[in-house]
Write a structure and sequence with these properties.
This protein is of the alpha+beta class and 357 residues long. It has 2 domains: 165 residues, Aminotransferase class 4, branched-chain amino acid transferase, N-terminal domain (D-amino Acid Aminotransferase, Chain A, domain 1, 2-Layer Sandwich), CATH 3.30.470; 166 residues, D-amino Acid Aminotransferase, subunit A, domain 2 (D-amino Acid Aminotransferase, Chain A, domain 2, Alpha-Beta Barrel). The chain is built from 8 helices and 18 strands. The strands form 2 sheets. Strands 1, 2, 3, 4, 5, 6, 7, 8 and 18 form a 9-stranded mixed beta sheet that branches. Strands 9, 10, 11, 12, 13, 14, 15, 16 and 17 form a 9-stranded mixed beta sheet that branches. A hairpin with a 3-residue loop joins strand 12 and strand 13. Helix 3 crosses helix 4. It is globular. It starts with a strand and ends with a strand. The chain binds pyridoxal-5'-phosphate. Pyridoxal-5'-phosphate binds next to helix 6.
Length: 357
């Protein structure tokens, strides 16, 4: 697929980019360009283009605004010492994007178009890729129904887009162990639902729980599976791991209600490479609490593209607090190894890197 290019008429000057990158947050500034590919039933994917970043014109009756027909992805691009920009396992994101699309009755974007769209954007906006420790250019591909129609059925017109945003630590400031609120009032997903699709509605439904977490002085929410005796599921946008003192990682198994994280999968591989045992199974909150109390479960961490690997220091469950007593050495060394591969400082044994520009 060929991309038409409409360059930005007045791209951000280098000094302004430097200023934006000096005070890097998460998801607040956007690069100069965006990639767009349209889809119409009968025509297929068409009108692939790179154009200046700008507002979208949409009918007020567009299906996405009413029925949330939308999916997204998240990847990061890192600059290596030789100045090249790489991303991590984009084929896995392309694959998940197609699975999310199938679940939400959206069209499936071919992997080569997904990957090419990232290359198109990053090659034009390469100056926006930050090079500070833990910093990256966050890439956000998304697809939504643009068809103006208020009836309820799968739409027939869609737009795929990619935007990019320089990113630092998603939790703000320096890396520190986060505090997690256990949601007993809200559930993220149920069997047969949309839990394993990366779709906006899952996030919309999680926000009231997230607000509760903030009110309780926490950073994030842990969702449980009430159908299985409050088994641990995941955070609103991150998967969860526990570290047991016998070189074992434990993480909830993929049952269809959990988002299949690329980071989760990569951590499992890196841990196995080290000779760790990885148990993918149901984890009851009671097991976590008991393990933390008797010192057998020493560390816990959240992982995802945005959070990379972030230690979980405490879990607040109503009036109860579960405190992790370990030194987070396993968590931090897995984080270092993953970031090392992503930034080109550690050998890419599994051929996970893909050069974008
Ligand atoms: C995106 C996401 C994750 C993490 O997936 P990665 O591929 O590792 O970025 C975990 N949980 C939810 C709900 C997500 O949306």
């Amino acid at each position: 697929m060929e991309f038409d290019v409409v360059p930005h008429p007045n791209p951000t000057p280098e000094s302004a980019i430097a200023e934006a990158l000096a005070d890097i947050g998460f998801g607040t500034t956007y690069t100069d360009h965006t990639v767009v590919v349209d889809y119409r039933v009968g025509t297929g994917w068409h009108s692939a283009r790179v154009e200046p970043f700008g507002d979208i014109t949409l009918s007020p009756a567009a299906a996405v605004l009413h029925y949330a027909e939308t999916i997204f992805e998240g990847l990061k691009a890192y600059v290596h010492d030789d100045g090249s920009v790489y991303t991590f396992r984009p084929e896995a994101n392309a694959d998940r994007f197609r699975r999310s699309a199938r679940r939400m009755a959206l069209p499936e974007l071919p992997e080569e178009v997904f990957v090419a769209s990232l290359e198109e954007l990053v090659s034009r906006d390469k100056a926006w890729v930050p090079n500070g420790e833990g910093e990256s250019l966050y890439l956000r591909p998304f697809l939504f129904a643009t068809e103006a129609f208020l009836g309820v059925r799968p739409a027939t017109e869609f737009t795929y887009r990619v935007i990019a945003s320089p990113a630092g630590n998603i939790f703000g400031g320096e890396l520190r162990p986060v505090k997690i609120w256990v949601s007993r009032d809200y559930v993220r997903a149920a069997p047969g639902g949309t839990g394993s699709a990366k779709t906006g509605g899952n996030y919309a439904g999680s926000l009231v729980a997230q607000r509760q977490a903030i009110e309780k002085g926490c950073d994030q929410v842990l969702f449980l599976d009430p159908l299985h005796e409050n088994a641990v599921e995941e955070l609103g946008g991150m998967n969860v791991f526990l570290v047991r003192d016998d070189n074992t990682l434990i993480t909830p198994e993929l049952t269809g209600t959990i988002l299949e994280g690329v980071t989760r999968d990569s951590i499992i591989q890196l841990a196995k490479d080290r000779g760790f045992t990885v148990e993918e199974r149901r984890i009851r909150l009671e097991e976590w609490a008991a393990g933390a109390a008797d010192g057998s479960i020493t560390e816990a961490f959240a992982c995802g593209t945005a959070a990379v690997v972030t230690p979980i220091g405490q879990l607040l469950d109503g009036e109860e607090t579960i405190t992790m007593t370990g030194d987070f050495s396993t968590t931090m060394s897995l984080r270092e190894e993953l970031l090392g591969i992503q930034t080109g400082r550690v050998e890419d044994r599994h051929h996970w890197l893909h050069k974008l520009a």
